[in-house]
C-alpha cells in the first residue's frame, strides 16, 4: 500500500487532535502527548507536530510506502522536504524524535502497541 503523507505544524496539539479527528472521522492512530499525532486512512498519512512558532505551516510531504527500504528525505525544487518510509520505519522515527506513542487504533504493523 502507498499513502500520501502530509505533516503540519500546529499551535495547540489537543485542539488540533479534536479538529482533525472530526475531519477524518476517526481518532489519531498514534499520539505522543503534547508533541505529535498521526492519522492513517486508506489513502492518507497525516501528522501534526506542536510547533506554535510555525503553526499552520507545512513541515513536509511524502509517501508511506510498504515497499520503502528505510527512511529517505529529499528537498524538491521549491524547497519542500519529501520523505519516503514504511509504516514501521515511521514508527521508529517517531520514537526517536518524539518519544513512544500511544496507539489508539492499533494495527498489526505497529511497532509499539498500547
**For this structure, what is the CATH class?**
Alpha Beta
Largest sheet report: 8 strands, mixed
> Any idea of the CATH topology?
2,3-Dihydroxybiphenyl 1,2-Dioxygenase, domain 1
Annotation, overall tally of beta strands: 8
**Kindly, what is the distance between the CA atoms of the first and last residues, rounded to a whole number of angstroms?**
24 Å
Tell me the structural class: alpha+beta
Uncertain parts: none
- Secondary structure tally, helices: 2
Account of the protein in words:
The protein has one domain: 2,3-Dihydroxybiphenyl 1,2-Dioxygenase, domain 1 (Roll). A hairpin with a 3-residue loop joins strand 3 and strand 4 (44-50). 20% of the residues lie in helices and 39% in strands. The mean pLDDT is 91. It is built from two helices and eight strands; from the N terminus they run βαββββββαβ. By secondary structure, the chain is an alpha+beta fold. Strands 6-7-5-1-4-3-2-8 form an eight-stranded mixed β-sheet, sandwiched between helices.
Structure described in brief:
The chain is α+β, with helices and mostly antiparallel strands and about 110 residues long. The protein has 2 helices and 8 strands. It has a single domain, classed as 2,3-Dihydroxybiphenyl 1,2-Dioxygenase, domain 1, CATH 3.10.180.
